[in-house]
Write a structure and sequence with these properties.
Blueprint (H helix, E strand, L loop, with lengths): L2 H25 L2 H9 L3 H29 L5 H16 L7 H11 L4 H30 L5 H26 L2 H17 L4 H28 L1 H28 L6 H15 L10 H9 L1
Helix pairs in contact: 1-12, 3-4, 3-6, 3-10, 4-5, 5-6, 6-7, 6-9, 6-10, 6-11, 8-9, 9-10, 10-11, 11-12
Length: 295
């Protein structure tokens, strides 16, 4: 984790968000927006801060229920820090690409093998993908034809991306031994091409195979021996994201607006559905514009 690169992506994230917000302010009534900020109800701000704290704790607990079985005695604060690292690095890198590695890094510093922490990340990703696919379908059924053809096309494209990602993750979870075979085959090829690096290649390959084996054992543990933990994690995923969407509803109430509770939840579902794999850092720019367009 190079600090200069993190700082660069952080700056890009801020610039894209500010640019998008500026464009929205110029197109709409900036004075009304500033007036709404001034009149924001502090009671709703307190509710939002409480819900935000619950969000961070739920995200950490969703990881921790796995580590309670994998690494007995691990402190909850390790999972809390790992979740914060995931949130931050996901917010400053394209398609949230560094969120998972950042989380695994925190666990690795706490003495957890990469294979075990990778299994938890992928199982949680599996639950997240299932949630968004089901929730997006429900949101579209509730909202009906209230969006433009362009927005519908964008949502369908995102649906294809999510389903593809789900298939890939399911294969990775159910067929981890395939990676061991590929690694063994690749290491043999590399050794034949560059024989003077044979010992180093074999050492790296052995380390990778060890981690994949740990990952394989962890996945099997939760799929075959403790499926209730996996199901509980999926349930927590629903609670986690519904809590995120409810935050938006209370912000809206705090600004003095009113709206149908279920409709707001559905719109927030589609906003995050569109933003989840956005190529900009933390979906900056895309998030602001899609929220403005859909809300």
């Amino acid at each position: 984790f190079n600090k200069a690169k993190i700082r660069k992506w952080h700056i890009i994230f801020i610039l894209l968000s500010v640019t998008a917000l500026t464009a929205i302010f110029l197109k709409t009534h900036t004075g009304d927006t500033l007036n709404a900020f001034k009149n924001f109800n502090p009671g709703y701000l307190a509710i939002v801060l409480v819900l935000s704290s619950i969000d961070m704790c739920l995200g950490a607990f969703r990881n921790h229920i796995y580590f309670m079985k994998l690494v007995p005695g691990m402190k909850f604060m390790v999972s809390f820090r790992a979740n914060l690292a995931n949130i931050f690095m996901g917010a400053v890198t394209p398609s949230q690409s560094a969120g998972g590695p950042a989380q695994m890094y925190i666990y690795y510093k706490a003495g957890v093998s990469v294979g075990k922490s990778l299994s938890v990340s992928l199982l949680n990703l599996l639950g997240t993908l299932i949630f968004f696919i089901v929730a997006a379908v429900l949101a579209l059924s509730v909202l009906g034809n209230t969006f433009s053809r362009t927005m519908h096309s964008l949502i369908i494209f995102c649906f294809i991306v999510f389903v593809t990602e789900l298939i890939v993750v399911v294969l990775i979870v159910l067929r981890p031994s395939l990676f061991i075979k590929i690694t063994e085959w690749l290491s043999k090829k590399l050794c034949s091409w560059v024989p003077k690096f044979e010992s180093r290649i074999n050492r790296i390959a052995d380390r990778f195979i060890t981690e994949v084996a740990a990952y394989k054992d962890s996945c099997r543990l939760f799929i075959t021996e403790h499926p209730l933990i996996l199901l509980f994690s999926i349930f927590l995923t629903w609670v986690l994201y519904l809590n995120k969407f409810i935050i938006a509803y209370f912000i809206m109430l705090g600004l003095g607006s009113s709206g149908h509770f279920v409709q707001v939840l559905c719109i927030q579902t589609l906003v995050l559905f569109i933003c989840y794999f956005s190529p900009s850092p933390g979906a900056s720019g895309v998030a602001e514009l899609s929220i403005a367009a859909l809300m």
